[in-house]
Amino acid sequence: MIRFDNVSKSYPKQNRPALRDVSLEIEKGEFVFLVGSSGSGKSTFLRLLLREERATHGQVHVLGKDLARLSNWKVPHMRRQLGTVFQDFRLLPNKTVAENVAFALEVIGKPRGEIRKAVPQVLELVGLGGKEQRMPGELSGGEQQRVAIARAFVNRPRLLIADEPTGNLDPQTSVGIMKLLDRINRTGTTVIMATHDQQIVDQMRKRVIELEQGRLVRDQSRGVYGYQH
Amino acid sequence: MRAQFVMSEIGVGLRRNLTMTFAVIVSVALSLALFGGSLLMREQVGTMKGYWYDKVNVSIYLCNKNDAQSQGGACAKGAVTEDQKKEIKADLEKMPVVQSVQFETADEAFKHYKEQFGNSPIVPFLTPDQMQEAFRVKLKDPAKYRVVSSAFSQRPGVQEVEDQRKTLEPLLNLLNGMNLAALGVMALMLVVALMLIINTVRVSAFSRRRETGIMRLVGASSFYIQTPFIMEAAFAGLLGAGLACVLLVSVQYFLVNNWLAHQIDVIQFIGWDAVFAKMPLVIAIGLLMPALAAFVALRKYLKV
What we know:
The complex is a heterodimer of chains A (229) and B (304). Chain A is of the alpha/beta class and 229 residues long. In chain A, a hairpin with a 2-residue loop joins strand 4 and strand 5. In chain A, helix 3 crosses helix 4 and helix 4 packs across helix 5. The radius of gyration of chain A is 18 Å and the shape is globular. Chain B folds into 2 domains: 185 residues, no CATH class; 108 residues, Alpha-Beta Plaits, CATH 3.30.70. Helix content of chain B is 70%, strand content 8%. Chain B has a 4-stranded antiparallel β-sheet. In chain B, helix 1 crosses helix 9, helix 2 crosses helix 9 and helix 2 runs antiparallel to helix 10. The mean pLDDT of chain B is 84.
């Protein structure tokens, strides 16, 4: 599903590379935590997966495709098979919950009938049944993140990328979000989640990949958070 | 692509930047009106050239008795003789550039002069024998005036060879100069319009960065992301082009047809068909130029 072969990434005007010689493989259906202190290269790792950036050295394969050789105009099609969730939700404040989720399908040209069917379904799945017509501002942080997850999952992606999805939420709400991500993972979707939340990582006991100063320092199945920050 | 979605995006975008959109529309309208106006002006100068060049002649003025007495120079050898006249006429008719030759007697010249300058104070003092006889020569190509001039200006009995086209030239030059000035102002307005469009796109892209960011993440094609911006600019440009057409029509109606045509009747002014013929071009440019500018601006201001 995902393979990194000796991947390095340096940004111009920075002498220290953001990623150094990272090699790893993630199988279909896995749930992976990506941990590391700020500046360790987590964000760069995720940006490489989304092909927001290209690797300076080495090869990144996502969904069987070598991203270095993927031409620009094919990138949108590749991204349709990925779902993304962020710490800051990134919802459109002037659209209702249902419209926010529908937006993701509209802009990739899905037919209206399909959208009308898929949106209530996925909102039900994330536990927001009955809140279709609410505005994001009326919802709690946890509920907003559920909308974002619904939007990321409505197109049934094969890979869900979550960048600190619980970063803005209290521990109790975070547990709810983690249960939801776990449920999505059980449908066969690969989940990669960057996080700073020690409790969650220790509870879930999933594979843990730790980066430190751009290097892969730990890759442990059923791991724990494992370091103090 | 869902048309309804695109249309609503365009509406939202245009309303969000109402002042900027207005500025784009006005500057596009002005530059296109100047563009259309200058095209029409060129056509006007063209028709005037065609109309007048057709009428003007090369005149070969012949010496009369008065000239021979009062002036030295070309007529020092006395008034033109019948033999000289015959010779000149025969030589003129032999020249390949000459289309037709007409002889104007002093009486005819007197009559024409009275017609043209009837209210001049010197008319009462003129008599027919003060007028000059002349050959009115029509050339196949009015620009070949020099051939006639060099062949006849030194002939005995010839006072002067005059190209009437020369008297028209300053007027035509003035019109061409005005045309160039209009083109210069147009170029300036066009630059202003382009900068406004680029700035509008930048503001628009910034105020919609949330939407476009999400579109990018969920895999909307760059075509889908960029289209609303480009359509927005094209729509504003179209409104500007429409306004430019209205301006052209009103200038033709109020200034040319209802005023100038009454004031100056020796000029044949261009008609509605010429005005309407320019409109498709004006509209096409009004549509494409802003769209292209927006497309270029998006490459800089919108990551896709």
